[in-house]
Amino acid sequence: MADMALQELNTIDRDTLMERMARELPHISGEMGTTPIGIAYRTGLDKERMGLLVSGRRKMKWSEYMSILFVLWDDDRGREMVEEKGLFPEALKNAMKVNRNAHGES
């Protein structure tokens, strides 16, 4: 099962997900009652960097995508919007379950 989940992860088009996240973030954050800058604060991203990402002047890094995704996922409305827009694909969810369970208890 672990191998299959990780193989699925390799099929994810990260560039498309990151572009869509940047494009959708103003709308999603607005639905959450905040702004992309408010999301930046919660992720630790620099507000100037966030401005460049949502304006399309800079390409998002995968680590930035994941940070933003988890901030959105931690909010009920954000989670709803992420699901609605397909920004957290099942392949990624499955791979994360595998990775989380791959670490033995200390």
Summarize the structure.
The chain has 106 residues and is mainly alpha-helical. The protein has helices at residues 2-9, 14-31, 36-43, 47-55, 62-73, 76-84, 90-102. Helices cover 73% and strands 0% of the residues.
Instruction: List how many beta strands DSSP finds.
Output: 0
Indicate the mean pLDDT.
85
Q: Can you write the helix and strand succession as a string?
A: HHHHHHH
Low-confidence stretches: 101-106
Oligomeric state of the chains present here: single chain
Most strands sheet: none
Q: Give the helix level as a range of percent.
A: over 70%
**Secondary structure tally, helices:** 7
Give the end-to-end Cα distance, rounded to a whole number of Å.
23 Å
CATH domain class name of the domain at 14-85: Mainly Alpha
CATH architecture of the domain at 14-85: Orthogonal Bundle
CATH topology of the domain at 14-85: 434 Repressor (Amino-terminal Domain)
- In percent, how much strand structure appears in the residues? under 5%
Global geometry: globular
Structural class, by secondary structure, is mainly alpha
Q: What gyration radius follows from the Cα positions, in whole Å?
A: 14 Å
Structure characterization notes:
- The protein is mainly α and 106 residues long.
- The protein has a domain at 14-85: 434 Repressor (Amino-terminal Domain) (Orthogonal Bundle).
- The protein is 73% helix and 0% strand.
- Helix 1 packs across helix 7 (90-102) and helix 3 crosses helix 4 (47-55).
- It is globular and about 40 Å long.
- Residues 101-106 have low confidence and may be disordered.
